[in-house]
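so my prof wants the structure for this chain in the tokens format not the other one, which i didnt know existed until like an hour ago. anyway here's the sequence
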Amino acid sequence: MSDFAVLVVNTFSAYIGVIPFLILLQVITWKYKLPKRHQFGLYIYSLAICTILMASDTPSLYQIDFYPSFNFIPFYGFEDNLEHYIQSFLIFIPFGLLLPTLWKQFQPAKEALLSGIIFSLLIELSQLYCLATTATTDITDVIMNILGTLTGYFIFLQAKDMRFMGRMCLDTNDTLRKNLSRWEVYIYLFTSWLVTFLLAPFISNAIWDFLWDTVIGMPI
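here's what i got, hopefully its the right format
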């Protein structure tokens, strides 16, 4: 089975676990009367976070093992790992696009770029605790993640004046909404990570069992 198919199934597994908590968060914030396009965008943002976490082999609670592996030489072995580095670039494009689309505080380029750098570094540091041989803390991954973030931000600049983008951004003079906007991005990121960290392995195993038993026809 292709790496892409595995990524799709694992991301779907994580997202299934996250969706009930997204619904709960939107019930809690009902009083803010958020624009429907913004609410929809939050689901896409959470899906993007799940994709990044699954594609980056971030460890779950049941897969932690301190086994550090490093590469501090930019683009070392780039040709041998071209597919992996292209994936590292692609998965951060939605992140760089959605941050300024959904939250005005990330519309300055330096804020979007800084967020991409910090998030990428956190992911790479988490890989110090992956099971042996499953991931490497790699400077090239950070570079490709940053380039992906900048590409997503550039797409935002080209699309920001389009009509459908109008009500996706949580931009308001209301004090309550301003406070929500300040924390919402981190709440949804942390929720996606926490559910992925705790529940994704169980959901993923159940889905793979189902696929092997009913679709592929080979019981595990």
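also thought this was worth mentioning. Residues 53 and 107 are 24 Å apart (CA to CA).
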